[in-house]
């Protein structure tokens, strides 16, 4: 039985619990948040001990800590948990910037513990089936990715609107697009970006195009336009459309140059986070300190791309 602790009780923590409850041989053991009332409400719903302090959670017998806070505190909580001897699954983006991530990874290495960024798309059944299908029925050399999402339906009091908490479209949504581009096209060589800022000081809408080892990507992310988009992946022998919402992939269409079309349909269960949780637990059980799917190098490349895009549009957070 792998015992989980959670730091933070926001919306993503509730979705995480939907996933955790669908995974065998795990349990929620302890929860802490800066707001005690939310902790008691959370544990009243899902179980586990409501901790009064972070130290209480870390002194408990949890094996792993899931960090469900906003990016401003990811690095600090990751380092504290790793130094307390706990494995860490941290919500995306793993840290505020590459400099912070390198510090976290150094602590994980020193303590010989597992650290993984919670980048969910590659663990979904559809995404795995898609990769397997194109091994058997290739679309040739992939050279272009276009993807994006803009979510105008979230409340303006959502933490993504907070400059203090390192919100914004690049940090909250663009990191998904960074993953997709790197996963299909390889290392990033160049980033170009434009962004539009809102009243709170964060980017409300950003577009960035990138050159990679194997091609080019055009990407967008936003908080005030309605555009929950698909993803287009183009190769020399065909193209793939991962239908909206592509970051929670369930359906894809592959159109081949010779005219044949393949439809893939793989519904997901339990909100989708159960797949990354299952992977993370297997890494613990086999004594691994790094995921082979969301590797440390992948996390570094993703946040480096977002760092560069933020630099270009002029978005710098407190403390940077």
Automatic annotation (TrEMBL):
Alphabetic keyword roster:
Oxidoreductase
Domain Gfo/Idh/MocA-like oxidoreductase N-terminal, residue spans: 2-118
Entry's InterPro entries?
Gfo/Idh/MocA-like_OxRdtase_N, Gfo/Idh/MocA_domain, NAD(P)-bd_dom_sf
Family listed: Belongs to the Gfo/Idh/MocA family.
What would you give as a GO molecular function for this chain, any one?
oxidoreductase activity
What Pfam families is this protein classified in?
Answer: GFO_IDH_MocA (PF01408)
The species this protein belongs to is Mucilaginibacter segetis
Q: Where are the transmembrane segments?
A: none
This protein's name: Gfo/Idh/MocA family oxidoreductase
């Amino acid at each position: 039985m792998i015992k989980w602790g959670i730091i933070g009780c926001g919306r993503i923590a509730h979705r995480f619990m939907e996933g955790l409850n669908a995974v065998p041989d795990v349990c929620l053991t302890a929860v802490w948040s800066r707001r005690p009332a939310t902790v008691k409400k959370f544990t009243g719903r899902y179980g586990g001990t409501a901790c009064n302090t972070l130290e209480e959670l870390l002194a408990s017998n949890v094996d792993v800590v899931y960090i469900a806070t906003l990016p401003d505190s990811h690095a600090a909580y990751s380092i504290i948990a790793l130094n307390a001897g706990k494995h860490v699954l941290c919500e995306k983006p793993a840290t505020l910037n590459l400099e912070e991530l390198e510090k976290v990874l150094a602590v994980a290495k020193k303590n010989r513990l597992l650290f993984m960024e919670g980048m969910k798309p590659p663990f979904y059944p559809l995404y795995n089936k898609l990769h397997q299908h194109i091994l058997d029925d290739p679309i040739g050399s992939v050279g272009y990715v276009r993807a994006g999402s803009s979510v105008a339906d979230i409340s303006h009091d959502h933490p993504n609107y907070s400059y203090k908490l390192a919100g914004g479209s690049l940090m909250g949504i663009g990191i998904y697009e960074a993953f997709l581009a790197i996963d299909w096209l390889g290392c990033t060589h160049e980033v170009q970006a434009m962004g539009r800022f809102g009243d709170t000081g964060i980017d409300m809408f950003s577009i960035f195009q990138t050159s990679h080892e194997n091609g080019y990507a055009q990407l967008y992310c936003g908080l005030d336009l309605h555009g929950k988009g698909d993803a287009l992946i183009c190769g020399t022998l065909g193209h793939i459309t991962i239908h909206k919402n592509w970051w929670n992939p369930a359906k894809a269409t592959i159109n081949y140059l010779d005219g044949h079309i393949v439809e893939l349909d793989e519904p997901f269960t339990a909100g989708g986070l159960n797949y990354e949780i299952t992977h993370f637990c297997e890494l613990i059980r086999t004594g691994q300190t790094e995921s082979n799917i969301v590797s440390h190098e992948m996390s570094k490349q993703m946040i480096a791309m977002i760092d560069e895009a933020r630099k270009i549009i002029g978005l710098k957070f407190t403390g940077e």
